[in-house]
Amino acid sequence: MRILQNEKNLILKNILYLIQGALVGVGAILPGVSGGVLCVAFGIYEPMMELLTHPIQALKKNYKLFIPFIGGWFLGFVLLAKVVELLFTASASIALMLFFGLICGTLPELFKASEKSDPNKSWTPFILSLALAYLLFHLIENGVSAAITPSFWSFLLCGILWGLSLIIPGLSSSSILIYLGLYEPMTAGIGSLDFSVIIPMLIGIITTALLFARLVSMLFKKHYAITSRAVLGFVIASSLKIVPSSFTNPLMLVVSILCFGVGFAVSRAMDLARNKQENSSTQKGV
Q: Is the C-alpha dihedral spanning 240, 243, 246, 250 positive or negative?
């Protein structure tokens, strides 16, 4: 009976990680949504930084997490790119409100984990990062657009920006790429599996991620409370910037609110399921 229960728990965990990976991959395609924010929201950020810093050690430690999560990420990033492009074209408000709900649903657990790590530490890093990040994203959002001709080097730049968005929660590479005029050719190339687009992007993502992941991993290990609260500030600032400022009609507003509720409920359900699995594993280990 216990063996069957363990197998059931393992299957449920794999499904959760697969779904979360797919959502992170899809979120990376949506303008305004940061892959790094979703990694933080789903509790994958620290293991991912560890994977980029010490891959062999991290794989041995968290391979049960990485296999389904990375598989889901590729599913969302590559296979669903065209679907997301169509969804965003049909209704950007609905798509963004859905992801806003997904992020908001994880915030209670994120705050709880940061507070639990060191209740005596000040929340000043959170306030400062929230204010500075909101200002930064506002400046990016209202920046002057510039057109760059699609090429190997421009798609390499796309990868570098995406790599930075994975390391810096809240930095939306997609929003910057829109201003550079590279977003549409990039998503079209991914959707059609054009390797002249995908290969330079992957080079840029991997190179950038490897360069900065070690610093982030070190900060989490030595100053977890301060770092986690600063990251939370970035997460909330980024989330506020993706909320649509207007809706075409009252029906669209109602549908968008419902989508927010669905996203919130889904992320809360995934958090509760994950906590239940972790508590069950801890009790069995005692």
A: negative
